[in-house]
């Protein structure tokens, strides 16, 4: 029986300890003839006989427990000597099946594999693309057109595979196209001893490969024309690149040395599917034609309600928020948002030169939605409940998000209309300033769209953000490092907001007061509601001039409008072991589009020789002889994991022995206690 740690067998000497204790505690009696007890001799002999049997059983159990404990630390394992000797040498043959392997290159790789099999005897054959696939025979080797080839993953898999088989000496033969662009900048691993790696390079038939490497949608939002950019490999001569789609066939002549091609056209519908292709006339036709699926969408409509536009149109919060959302677009100056500003709560489309007065609930004024309150001076809820919405009021249904900047008096009917739109998925963003009063948002509080415990402290302290929820989708991009550090922004600590039920803070100032809050809801279809205890103007902290103002506004409204979940371009997948579909575009069960296209990394066909490949991966030299294999089954457990170890079973037996020993010892103690008067 082989052992991993045979030195622990010396601990078997500890089995003598229970014997010594047993012999030292044996009772010694002196016999005296007592006439009155002569009738108890028969019963006394039977009792002592049972006690001696129990003591002997306890002794054996304790000796067995000590022996099992020593044997468990010695770690015995099952060993088949013939099998161990038969697997002293193991060879694994890896064949490159990526898209850069042409039919002629695959034939050369097969010939090199046959030669390696003759030299090394028993060989496990496998091919690799994005994953490794073991082959039943060399005849099953087939390169996959357009597939990616991961040499690092293939080499790592070979080590894991050979170690799991417990081979003493291992050899890896890797055959493929070693592209210079795929070499690592530093060796990805340190190779263990007793491993040889032989690299056989299959040179490509040509160093030129014309390919369409990528397709990008430059105008994800509706415009006059849809613009799609294709990136092709550089060439020293002009060539023609074509875009073919449903009812479209556009061609562009690309000058020599140019790698970007722009297609501008009016799409027949919002989603366009097709191919961009060129005449490569090379040995790699799979990357000459690249599929695409692009979705052209309307910008997200956002309603901005500015309660205090200021003396000019360039002072209100609505102005700065509108500019931030308009500037937050990427492609060609287009924005993913279409903000619409309403100045004041009366629904005016143009700002007046007079500052809008603060109104209270119940006072007569024309509401945002065109409804009129009952005239009078009463401020009770009865007058507010009489308000109705006129036909032709602002249609909230068309907006993906609503922003209330500096709310004045909002009626219960208006609050109910906003709450109904939020319940159907629209986001709501509210920011307040020093002109806020409790009656300004009382209707929003009743509609559960604004926290209850808000107080204007009027503080002038300039503070930084001490904490923000970095897991929240609206703030996750600000990681405090490369993504941006919100602690660089300055805020005025003017509001005291106590924690209330149904609201959670997303950002807190260093004074302890929440700055940004969000409503907690269990309804996944409802929109998000956020409250910012700070205006978006330059009055308090010159916030709009900060470089992070635009990214912050964009991130907040990405979450409020669910823009982050929108898909403008299809997900791209590469052929390989995990992707068996042919090159083309597909519609998934959940409605999203997917494209299977050739891996652009395989379009770079300039290769290096085998020594350069081995140097880049720091592969062991295959020409050096391996050290003699150790035939002893006992070895270093770290070098080769042992299968069939006994210690889990020994632990189970040891626990069973200890349980039995405890039961016998308890039974013996009980008998001694009940028989104490007889011994006396």
TrEMBL record:
| Bilayer-crossing regions | 6-23, 56-78
User: What residues does the Aerotolerance regulator N-terminal domain cover?
Assistant: 1-76
What Pfam family does this protein match (any one)?
BatA
Q: Does the keyword Disulfide bond apply?
A: no
Identify the keywords attached in UniProt to this record, alphabetized.
Answer: Membrane, Transmembrane, Transmembrane helix
- InterPro entries attached here? Aerotolerance_reg_N, Class_I_gatase-like, Double_TM_dom, vWFA_dom_sf
- Superkingdom of this protein's organism: Bacteria
Extract the PANTHER family matched here.
Answer: BLL2463 PROTEIN
- The name of this protein is BatA domain-containing protein
Q: Which organism is it from?
A: Luteolibacter arcticus
- UniProt lineage: Bacteria, Pseudomonadati, Verrucomicrobiota, Verrucomicrobiia, Verrucomicrobiales
């Amino acid at each position: 029986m082989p052992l991993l740690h045979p030195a622990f067998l010396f601990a078997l000497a500890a089995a003598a300890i229970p014997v010594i204790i047993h012999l030292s505690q044996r009772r010694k009696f002196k016999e005296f003839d007592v006439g009155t007890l002569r009738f108890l001799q028969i019963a006394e002999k039977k009792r002592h006989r049972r006690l001696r049997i129990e003591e002997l059983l306890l002794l054996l159990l304790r000796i067995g427990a000590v022996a099992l404990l020593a044997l468990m630390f010695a770690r015995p394992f099952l060993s088949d000597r013939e099998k161990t000797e038969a697997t002293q040498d193991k060879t694994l043959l890896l064949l490159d099946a990526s898209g850069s392997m042409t039919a002629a290159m695959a034939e050369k790789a097969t010939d090199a594999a046959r030669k390696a099999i003759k030299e090394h005897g028993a060989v496990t054959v496998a091919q690799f693309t994005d994953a490794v696939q073991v082959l039943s025979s060399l005849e099953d080797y087939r390169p996959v057109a357009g597939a990616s080839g991961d040499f690092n993953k293939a080499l790592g898999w070979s080590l894991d595979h050979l170690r799991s088989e417990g081979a003493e000496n291992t050899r890896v033969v890797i055959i493929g196209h070693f592209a210079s662009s795929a070499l690592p900048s530093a060796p990805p691993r340190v190779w263990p001893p007793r491993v040889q790696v032989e690299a056989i390079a299959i040179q490509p038939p040509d160093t030129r490969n014309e390919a369409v490497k990528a397709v990008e949608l430059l105008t994800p939002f509706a415009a006059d024309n849809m613009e799609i950019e294709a990136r092709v490999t550089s060439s020293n001569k002009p060539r023609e690149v074509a875009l073919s789609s449903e009812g479209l066939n556009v061609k562009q002549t690309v000058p020599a040395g140019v790698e970007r091609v722009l297609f501008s056209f009016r799409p027949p519908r919002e989603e366009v599917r097709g191919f961009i292709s060129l005449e490569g006339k090379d040995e790699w036709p799979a990357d000459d034609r690249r599929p695409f699926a692009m979705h052209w969408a309307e910008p997200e409509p956002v309603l901005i309600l500015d309660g205090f536009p200021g003396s000019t149109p360039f002072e209100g919060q609505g102005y700065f928020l509108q500019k931030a959302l308009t500037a937050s677009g990427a492609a060609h100056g287009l924005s993913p948002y279409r903000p619409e500003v309403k100045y004041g709560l009366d629904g005016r489309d143009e700002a007046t030169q007079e500052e809008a007065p603060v109104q209270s609930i119940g006072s007569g004024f024309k509401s945002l939605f065109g409804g009129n309150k009952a005239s009078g001076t009463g401020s009770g809820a009865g007058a507010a409940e009489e308000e109705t919405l006129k036909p032709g009021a602002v249609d909230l249904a068309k907006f993906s998000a609503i922003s209330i900047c500096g709310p004045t008096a909002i009626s219960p009917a208006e609050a109910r209309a906003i709450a109904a739109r939020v319940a159907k998925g629209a986001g709501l963003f509210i920011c307040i300033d020093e002109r806020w009063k409790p009656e300004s948002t009382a209707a929003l509080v009743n509609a559960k769209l604004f926290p209850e415990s808000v107080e204007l402290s009027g503080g002038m302290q300039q503070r930084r953000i001490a904490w923000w929820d970095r897991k929240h989708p609206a703030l996750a991009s600000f990681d405090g490092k490369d993504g941006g550090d919100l602690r660089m922004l300055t805020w005025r600590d003017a509001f005291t907001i106590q924690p209330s039920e149904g609201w959670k803070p997303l950002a807190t100032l260093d004074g302890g007061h929440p700055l940004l809050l969000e409503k907690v809801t269990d309804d996944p279809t409802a929109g998000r509601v956020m409250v910012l205890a700070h205006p978006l103007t330059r009055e308090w902290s010159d916030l709009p001039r900060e470089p992070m103002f635009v990214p912050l506004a964009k991130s907040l409204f990405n979450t409020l409008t669910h823009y982050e979940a929108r898909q403008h371009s299809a997900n791209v997948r590469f052929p390989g072991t995990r992707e068996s579909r042919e090159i083309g575009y597909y519609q998934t069960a959940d409605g999203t589009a997917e494209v299977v296209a050739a891996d652009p990394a395989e379009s770079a066909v300039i290769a290096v020789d085998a020594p350069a490949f081995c140097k880049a991966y720091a592969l062991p030299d295959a020409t050096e002889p391996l050290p003699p294999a150790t035939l002893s089954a006992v070895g270093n457990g770290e070098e080769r994991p042992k299968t069939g170890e006994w210690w889990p079973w020994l632990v189970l037996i040891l626990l069973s022995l200890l349980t039995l020993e405890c039961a016998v010892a308890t039974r013996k103690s009980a008998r001694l206690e009940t028989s104490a008067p007889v011994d006396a």
